[in-house]
Amino acid sequence: MTHTAAPAHGLSAELVSRRAGGRLILDGVDIAPPPGATVGLLGPNGSGKSTLLRILAGLLAPATGVVTLDGHPLAGLGRRTVARRIAVVDQHAVTQVDLSVLDVVRLGRIPHRRAWSAPDRTDEEAVADALRRTGLAERSGQSWHTLSGGERQRVQIARALAQQPRELLLDEPTNHLDIQHQLDLLALVAALPVTSVIALHDLNLAAMFCDRITVMKAGRVVAGGTPAEVLTEELIEDVYRVRAVVTPDGPDGRPSVRFLPRR
Prior knowledge:
It comes from Streptomyces durocortorensis. By secondary structure, the protein is α/β, with parallel strands linked by helices.
């Protein structure tokens, strides 16, 4: 893969590598999501998607390479500074504390507040806007523990939006959701005015909602581009070891993937 210099604006990883348990998890990965784009991060289990997202968020440090934010190394920025810019939505959010939807969403304002200070008008406006965007304004008083899986994911996105980030990282947010909630959640994310990187398993969902796709295999980036450029029958067989028929019959000529039975 040809190495390109990081852009001056936005989030970027250059030649990032990471080992765990003696195994190379990421091997010289470059990724530079275009500002404002929705980028799908695809690849089989063990390809390094979750590790890459955690490194992009500053939660893990790369063994080699550098992650930059607006051209500045992420490692040199304070945790609070990073948290004001980058929000993360994990696969599973669990709490034993009996919090309301409003309580959870208010957690997104912590990076913007001084320690022990009460929420101010700016905080409350950001929380109210996040609840409105995610369709949760009428549910703000409801207990977190009474919510379905899809509703909890929506609350976690509202919490992330309350941070008012410019970059949003989501690790397989559609896992364990029914089809309607998968479509609703990805439509919500794709419409947000932020740069989003979403680790996904479903190739058709990625084709429907992502502006660009990055495909990983064994810790390396093996393809990147628009869904039509990347999702080919040859790539799917190489990366996933399955046969598929790819046709450009989705909206705006986006590809549709139909898997074939194993020989």
